[in-house]
Amino acid sequence: MTSQMKEEAPLGKVIVITSGKGGVGKTTSAAAISAGLAKLGHKTVVIDFDVGLRNLDMIMGCERRVVFDFINVIQGDARLKQALIKDKRLDTLFILPTSQTRDKDALTQEGVEAVLNELKEEFDYIICDSPAGIERGAQMAMYFADEAIVVTNPEVSSVRDSDRVLGLLNSKTKRAENGDDEPVSARVLLTRHDQARIDKGEMMTVEDVLEILAVPLLGIVPESPAVLRASNIGTPVVLGDPCAAASAYEDAVARITGEEIEMRVETDRGPGFLQKLFGRTA
Amino acid sequence: MSLFGFSLKPRRQKQSAQVAKDRLQILLAHERSRGADTADFLPQLQNDVIAVIRKYVQVADNDVDIRMEKGSDISSIEINIEIPADAPRKRTARG
């Protein structure tokens, strides 16, 4: 491996991508955000916590390279280095796939903590891709998080579930239980945003959702055919052809690293060109 | 036209997005203040109510109906007990 130690210690920040509701774009977002961070040169690992329903490997395009997994490492059957899959496109990006044959009980709190601590020694960002729901897998994915990205669609059941998850982040995490620590910093990533439907009054606006959930906004990802195309070929959206969803994720990634970037909504169709031009001048 | 996703123009009257927002605001106000599991006591309450009623009147399980109505400020529990006209009275509640 060509992993050259950087001068300074790695950042070691644990970020959970969660939502409560399934199908809102957690894995797509975890893949895009981790690839985006890695593209900026941050050493990043993305972990699949959806034990039994492994999918991150497909979205990342490394499904044929899985030998050992997260559960093997927790149970001592493999070393962490053996289970980490190095991305073929970015040498700062690694994937830790989950098991397809075990169940969620294989995730022990001590085991997860040991793996995360080992990863913190080497990585700047540790992205935990949570399963849907609020049971063990989801709780383990969020328990050790420093930050949370709550993926939400502008739709009633998704917003309600996001609210539940925000409650859990405030009560069922290590930071919450450890009164002295700062609480988990949570932000909403709004996905499947459709400006045309908002204009028709058929979809809640970004402001509506933020007013209800009362947490800061990380980004707005437009509904885009590029997302399905990207998952078809196993390429995170930000590593494929330029599109509105990719730039939305890139903006979100920059915000994660602390940059202040104005919120904007791009679309792949419509009056794109001039709009993009003006949108970028800020 | 809005350059950003934020609605810069006022929306027309009560569209479905507005209904969605209103419903969520009412629901989540409840779920946050008392947790999502608040209504979990209703089945137990129903059993207890039936037990108390049966001390005095013979009623069947489905003669007792308990509903909860959540409003934005207060909630109400409505208990309806149907007592059949020919229900045998129990004189011996106190022995």
In helices, the fraction of residues of chain A equals 25-40%
The profile of the biggest β sheet of chain A is: 8 strands, mixed
User: Low-confidence parts of chain A lasting 5 or more residues at pLDDT below 50?
Assistant: none
Instruction: Extract low-pLDDT stretches of chain B.
Output: none
Q: Which strand order does the major sheet of chain B show?
A: 1-2
Structural class of chain B: alpha+beta
Mean pLDDT of chain A: 91
Mean pLDDT of chain B: 74
The strands making up the biggest β-sheet of chain A line up spatially as 3-4-2-5-1-6-7-8
Estimated share of beta-strand residues of chain B: 5-15%
- What order do the helices and strands of chain A follow? EHEHHHEEHEHEHHEHHEHHH
Query: Oligomeric status of the shown chains?
Result: heterodimer
What's the topology here?
The complex is a heterodimer of chains A (282) and B (95).
Chain A: E1 13-18, H1 26-39, E2 44-48, H2 56-60, H3 70-74, H4 80-83, E3 85-86, E4 93-96, H5 109-120, E5 125-129, H6 136-143, E6 147-152, H7 156-169, H8 174-177, E7 185-193, H9 195-199, H10 206-213, E8 217-222, H11 225-233, H12 244-256, H13 272-280
Parallel strand pairs in A: 1-5, 1-6, 2-4, 2-5, 6-7, 7-8
Antiparallel strand pairs in A: 3-4
Chain B: H1 16-34, H2 42-54, E1 64-70, E2 75-81
Antiparallel strand pairs in B: 1-2
